[in-house]
Amino acid sequence: MSKKNVAVVMGGFSDEYKVSLKSGQLIYDSLDRDLYNVYKVVVLKEEWYFLNENEEKLPINKGDFSVTLSDGAILKFDVCFNIIHGAPGENGELQGYWNAIGQKYTGCDFYKSALTFNKKDTLAVLAKYRIPSAKSFYLRKGENINEEKIVEELGLPLFVKPNQSGSSLGISKVKAKSELAAAIEFAFKEDDEILIESFLNGMEVSVGVIDYKGETIVLGITEIVPHKEFFDYEAKYTTGVTNEITPGRMTEEEKARVEGAMLKIYNRLNCKGVVRIDYILHQDTNLMYVLEVNTVPGQSQNSIIPQQVRATGMSMTDFYGAIIEEALKK
Question: Beta partners for 138?
Fold first, then answer.
């Protein structure tokens, strides 16, 4: 059986591209060279390029996502391992392009990617299935801001976050009304739409769910214990700022309930590949409040999904290979 050509596609159009490059490197290093010819492709706003074995850049032909090698040969990819966080790899743009040219890829399709990248719309869809989320207030750039009404409806503290962004970029925790205007301005730097959400007191948990060898499974349940006010960009990517406990400290009943709820979300949204779902297990009600659904979760060495893979005893090589094999069936 001939080896499949796999492009590990990383980079992106947002500040998350730095995280994506680290994620891509882990996947590139982990894939089985006996099964796959593995290549690096970087997609940035200013250029799309292939990196050869000497780390030299060769341009990607956007007509069919191929590359002309130094010897003149044309290289096409059997499958693209999409590991771009944010635009264009997590919001559906790249998936729509790949669909148009007939290129296979890992993860969710263009519609599910676009839906889940939009926090407001995702929570609205999940609400139809009686999956609760925090009470929220939606704003678009240029709209009048009634701070009194926001605080009256949501209370304090509250969270202000971009509607379409990842890696906790642009998020603020607001403890006093006097901090609200600056937090809104900060969030609007990342997106023209923002969500302002009520504070939920409880355990923050992150759960990996995946289509694995023909079965949808919960990969792991990780408890997030940030030493800062909340799980922001620094807390996510700075060693020692957060304790990430896998498996999370919960009863067997809570674990079973979490697994059932996460599988329900994954299946109702018709997700593919590996997805990370973040939620709060409320301290008082013991209900699960979904925060967001990440269809291209971080895969750097210290990211939550690789932690969960290691906790199961599964090898990274087997894990990423299974993702590729599922994508090749599309």
Answer: 195
Sequence-distant (6+) residues with CB within 8 A of 171 are: 159, 160, 161, 162, 187, 230, 232
pLDDT digits (tens, 9 = 90+) for 202-219: 999 999 999 998 899 999
Q: Give Rg (Cα) of the chain.
A: 20
Structure token digits, residue 13: 């159009």
Give the DSSP letter of residue 132.
-
Question: Tokens in use for 112?
Answer: 């599910």
DSSP H or E run through 185: helix 180-188
Angle formed by the axes of helices 252-268 and 119-127, nearest 10°: 110
Distance (Å, whole) CA 214 – CA 104: 18
Token pair of 98 as six digits: 């790949």
pLDDT by residue (tens digit) across 250-300? Answer: 999 999 999 999 999 999 999 999 999 999 999 998 899 999 999 999 999
